[in-house]
Amino acid sequence: MSWTAADAVDYKGFPADKSRTGGWVSAALILGIEICERLSTMGIAVNLVTYLVGTMHLPSSTSANIVTDFAGTSFLLCLLGGFLADSFLGRYRTIAIFASIQTLGIVALAISVKLPQLRPPHCDITAANNNCKQANEFQMGFLYLALYMIALGIGGLKSSVSGFGTDQFDDKDDKEKAQMAYFFNRFFFFISTGTLTAVTVLVYIQDQVDRSLAYGICSISMFIAILVFFSGTKRYRYKKSTGSPIVQIFQVIVAAVRKRKMPLPFDIAFLYENYPEATRIGHTDQFRVDTHPVQFSVSFLDKAAIVAEEDFERNAPAGSLPNPWKLCSVTRVEEVKMMVKLLPIWATTIMFWTAYAQMLTFSVEQASTMERSIGKFQIPAGSLTVFFVLAILITLAVNDRLIMPVWKKWKGQPGFTNLQRIAIGLVLSTLGMAAAALTEKKRLSVAKGMKTMSTGALPISVYWLIPQFFLVGSGEAFIYTGQLDFFITQSPKGMKTMSTGLFLSTLALGFFVSSFLVSIVRRFTGSKDGQGWLADNINYGRLDCFYGLLSVLSVINFVAYLVCARWYKPRKPTKPSNGSSAEDKC
User: Fold this and answer.
1) What pLDDT does 510 receive?
2) C-alpha dihedral (484, 485, 488, 490), degrees to nearest 10
3) Which end of the chain has fewer beta carbons closer than 10 Å to its terminal beta carbon, N or C?
4) 3-state secondary structure of 5
């Protein structure tokens, strides 16, 4: 048994001693910063739309787009964070730098909501004919600065936290491999815990006490988490950066384009390969392009592995590697093919996160117009997302304790495959949008029956919104784990960071698609006086039609997903899996 962790060093650069570095103590310090990140992110996102409408006096559609653009940018910047971590900074420095940026952004946001100079004069937005003054460019500019500093911090932090956590375990040690699997399971649990605290405690403080105090709590918790993170510097295990998968992918594409006119050899054994036999990936004929109508079909990307005389430097020492922008190995080409093969599934999962975005925007705005009292206590509109989080936790528990054992007895399989879980998530989100349309139709009928239509409380219980929150929340429990499992297990070993970035990019694009759809619907159904499907005052609009549109698009997307899932052939493991690896458990 080795006393040092494989491929890991300590903070001084020496081989990492297992007895002094890594393990659960180090992983727990890293989980702490993830809890605070989730607490801050969700505490801001789930209740931001009420601040934009009620305090900054922005139209509901504009407010919704600001929230979805903020959330989408946060996830999209994960690709930047992953690139910097893999190529230059390493995961430890990336976490430290971007967590600090996020903390500064939260402080700026707390200042923005506290100072009266940074928001318009108070006005009764619930009045039917109000003349509330919207926030000016300077006020919105300061708010945007704070929000996108937070988004930048989230992107860098989220891209490296899970990876740095798994670095604390040696996957070649059976005991630590089991601990790593446990870490993956607890990671999602802690994310949900942070979210639950955000949508209950923090949202209540924002609505009933002081919004700047809630953001101050977020910034203090992040600052403490950073100090705790730094305290583990001597205990962490560090792995050297191996280069960005994004760069490797571009190298294959550039090399293939350069040799696009060169014919491939009839025998693939003449293609370049420099990987050891044990780590090679066999050649495949995926993504074929016909180069001759009669003779044969070849893969365009394979041309990156054609050996040409100019690929090697003339005066280079013996044994030196060729320029990777001119010549790539067959294994490297096959890795890129595997990533390309994931794209159809990737594209058809974006629509789920577009439906998810409505839970943070229009659904919260719906809740703000409905009866939310329990005795003398009034539930904050943003806290309705607690049913969303509870749906996730309940679904995970029921799936683990009830559905999976039954499925194993019936089908002889330990549970749903990753593609099946994604499909279930898509179906549940479609039903969630249909339920949202029916609930909004009911809410509008009540609003139209009132003599004075306003955004004040209507005589209809907020609990009518529970079905849409619960269905989309249950869908997330399936699709989140399904996507994460799919992108990790079906990607090359050397591109796990890239595959995780692909997964997170579906969240980003889902939010951006939501913003795009809102803008399109606003343009084609809106009027100069702020009416239309997405009216400035949702009691005058037809939000039910917008939800109906999302339901139809979700059905079309699901059909496309079924076609892609049927086409996709899962990657077969090179050796039998005993089900104990972290990736299998994930």
Assistant:
1) 93
2) -130
3) N
4) strand
What's the N-to-C CA distance of the chain in angstroms? 26
For residues 21 and 235, the answer to whether their CB atoms sit within 8 Å is yes
Decide if 281 contacts 335 (C-beta within 8 A).
yes
Give residue 578's pLDDT: 39
- Let me know: does 25 contact 182? Beta carbons within 8 Å: no
Q: pLDDT tens digits, residue range 291-311? A: 444 333 346 888 888 888 777
Question: What letter would DSSP give residue 403?
Answer: I
Residue with tokens 């080795």: 2
d(CA 155, CA 23): 26
Q: Which amino acid is at 418?
A: N
Q: What integer pLDDT is reported at residue 319 of this predicted model?
A: 64
Sequence-ordered list of residues with C-beta below 8 angstroms from that of 77, at least 6 positions apart, any chain = 151, 152, 154, 155, 156
Q: How far apart are CA 496 and CA 338, in angstroms?
A: 12
Which residue is associated with the tokens 């399904």?
482
User: What is the token pair recorded at 112?
Assistant: 């923005």
Long-range contacts of 543-547 (CB under 8 A, 24+ apart): 543/362, 543/366, 543/440, 543/444, 544/437, 544/438, 544/440, 544/441, 544/444, 545/437, 546/362, 546/517, 546/518, 546/521, 547/358, 547/433, 547/434, 547/436, 547/437, 547/440
DSSP string, 271-326: S---S-GGG-------SEEESSSSS-EEEGGGGGG---GGGS-TTPPTTPPPPTTT
Question: Rounded to two decimals, what is the model's pTM?
Answer: 0.79
Return the sign of the alpha-carbon dihedral for residues 65, 153, 202, 188: positive
* Confidence (pLDDT) at 45: 87
Give the HSE-up count for residue 220: Cα atoms under 13 Å, Cβ half-sphere: 6
Q: What is the rounded distance in angstroms from the CA atom of residue 396 to the CA atom of residue 402?
A: 10
**CA dist., res. 69 & res. 448, Å (int):** 32
> How are beta strands 370-371 and 458-461 bridged, if at all?
parallel
The pLDDT of residue 377 is 79
Cα–Cα dist 22/179, whole Å = 11
Mean pLDDT of the chain: 83
Pairing verdict, β 297-299 and 288-290:
antiparallel
Residue with the two structure tokens 């054994």: 269
pLDDT at 530: 61
In 3D space, the residue among 383, 384, 585, 365 whose CA is nearest the CA of residue 489 turns out to be: 585
